[in-house]
Amino acid sequence: MITSDNSAPVLTGNRPFEILRREDYSDVTYMLEVHHPQMARAAQPGQFVIVMSHSDGERIPLTIADFKREKGTITLVIQAVGKSTLEMKEMCQVGTHLYGLAGPMGIPSHVSSAKKVICVGGGLGVAPVYPQARALKEAGAYVIGILGYRTKDLIFWEDKFRAITDELIICTDDGSAGIRGFVTDGIRQALESHPDTEEVIAIGPPVMMKASAQATKPYGIKTMVSLNPIMVDGTGMCGGCRVKVGEKVKFACVDGPDFDGHEVDFDDLMIRLRRYKEEERVARERWSESCRMSTAAVGSEYATVSA
Fold first, then answer.
1. pLDDT tens digits for 155-165?
2. What is the rounded end-to-end Cα distance, in angstroms, of the chain?
3. Under a CB-based contact definition with an 8 Å cutoff, are residues 76 and 34 in contact?
4. Where in the chain is the domain with CATH 3.40.50.80?
C-alpha cells in the first residue's frame, strides 16, 4: 500500500521487494535497506510499515528508520527477539526479497517550529527517532541528540546522528562510552545546559519513554513518544493496538504512533505488551527446534554422501 498524504493507502498488490543492503549491529540487531521507490517517495518521519518476509509469515509492524528518495529505498532496523524476527534474521540477506510491504502507515510526525529540540533514542529506538531529528534540523531547529545503549559494543548510528545534530550525548548503562547512566541522565544534563528547550521527542522501550516523560514533566516541556503496541492489520480494524491516552482510548496504527508522553498510560501499555509472552515463547522454541532438526538433517545427508 502506498500513500503520499493522510488519505487511505492504495493497494499495489503483492510483489517482491529486494533487500539491497544489510548491516548487523549486534547478534540480535540488524538493518535492512529495501528497494521500493514509491514507498521512499511517500514516506514521512514517524510512519511505519507492515512487513511479511514470506507468504506464510507473520505481519510485523516496523518503523521506517530512514528513507532515501533519490535512491528509492527505505531502511528498517530490526531486533530479533521473537519467532518472526529471528526467522527474518536468517532469511533476509542481500539479494533476497520480502514477500509483502504495506505502508507507509500512521500519521507522520509533526515537525514543529520549535527552535530547540531534544531527540532521545533508547536501544532500538535510536533508529526511528533519526528521521524526526533530521527533519527538525532541516526545519532550522537546534537539535540535541541523546542516545542510550546498554554498552559500547551495541552503539550504532552515532555518525549519522553527529551529522544532523548540534550536540550529541551518548549514554551507556555500564559507562563504557559517553556518560554512565540512562537517557534520563542525558535529558537532565541537556536541560541544565539548555533550559530554553521547547520540545522533547523520546522513542524506545515503554519503560524508557515513561521515565523520559516523567523527567520532562516538572519543566512543562512538550514530550512526544512513539508507541508500538501489538498490531495485526494496521488499519484500526483489529483493535489490538489500542492504548490509553489521557481519558481516551486511541489506536496506535491510525491515531498515532506519536502521542503526548505526559498523557500516555504506560503501565497499561506494558501490561498489554506482555499479554502474549507465553505464546511468543512457544512459537520461538518451536521454530528453533525445527531449525535444529533441519540443520541436523542436512548434516546427516552430507555425511552420508561424503561416505
1. 999 999 999 99
2. 52
3. yes
4. 116-273
pLDDT tens digits for range 155-211: 999 999 999 999 999 999 999 999 999 999 999 999 999 999 999 999 999 999 999
Determine how many CB atoms are found less than 10 A away from the CB of residue 291: 13
Q: Which residue has the cell 512487513?
A: 51
Whole-structure pTM value? 0.83
Contacts of 247 (CB under 8 A, 6+ apart): none
Calpha distance 260→262 (Å, rounded): 5
Give dist(CA 211, CA 214) in Å, integer: 5
Rounded to 5 degrees, φ, ψ at 187 are: -60, -45
CATH of domain 17-105: 2.40.30.10
Residue 301 confidence class, pLDDT cut points 50, 70, 90: low
Q: Under CATH, which architecture does the 116-273 domain have?
A: 3-Layer(aba) Sandwich (3.40)
